[in-house]
Amino acid sequence: MPDESVTPTTGVFGIGVVANLTGTGVQNLRAYEKAGLVHPQRTDGGTRLYSSADVARLQRITLLLDAGLNLAGIAMVLSLEADNERLRKQVARERTNRERH
Q1: What is the pLDDT of residue 28?
Q2: How far is CA 80 from CA 29, 41, 85, 90, in A?
Q3: How far apart are CA 9 and CA 15, in angstroms?
Q4: What is the pLDDT of residues 39-81, one digit of tens each?
Q5: N- to C-terminal Cα distance for the chain?
Q6: For domain 15-100, is the CATH number 1.10.1660.10?
Q7: In 3-state terms, what secondary structure has residue 50?
Q8: Which of the listed residues 31, 40, 76, 93 has the most CB atoms within 10 Å of its CB?
Q9: Cβ atoms < 10 Å from Cβ of 51
Q10: pLDDT at 5
Q11: Residue ranges of the domains in the chain?
């Protein structure tokens, strides 16, 4: 039976596992965190724990790096993508509310 307390934002993967999943080095993952591109959870002992959402974000970062963007450009793209998603959800909610009334 799956653990229902584990969500897409629950930190479950160690840094070595995430490095393998994303095809990047541990030092790169630390650099992405330092640049504010990803925010893994920490254990009481300070160990980074990445969620499945973090892994997906890191895969997106890898694609953007491969496209030639630097970390500052990636930060801008990720911010714009998040804004776009938020606005799409807002429009969908407003459309649903209008249809109900």
Answers
A1: 97
A2: 22, 23, 9, 15
A3: 15
A4: 999 999 999 999 999 999 999 999 999 999 999 999 999 999 9
A5: 41
A6: yes
A7: strand
A8: 40
A9: 21
A10: 80
A11: 15-100
Q: Where are the alpha helices (DSSP H) in 5-51?
A: 15-22, 26-34
Sequence-ordered list of residues with C-beta below 8 angstroms from that of 80, at least 6 positions apart, any chain: none
Nearest to 8 by CA among 48, 68, 55, 77: 55
CA–CA distance, 81 with 93 (Å, rounded to integer):
18
Distance CA 57, CA 71 (A): 13
- The amino acid present at 81, given as its one-letter code, is E
For residue 3, pLDDT beyond 80: no
Plot region of 10 (φ>0 → left; ψ -120 to 50 → alpha; else → beta)? beta
Q: Which two tokens stand for residue 98?
A: 């209008």
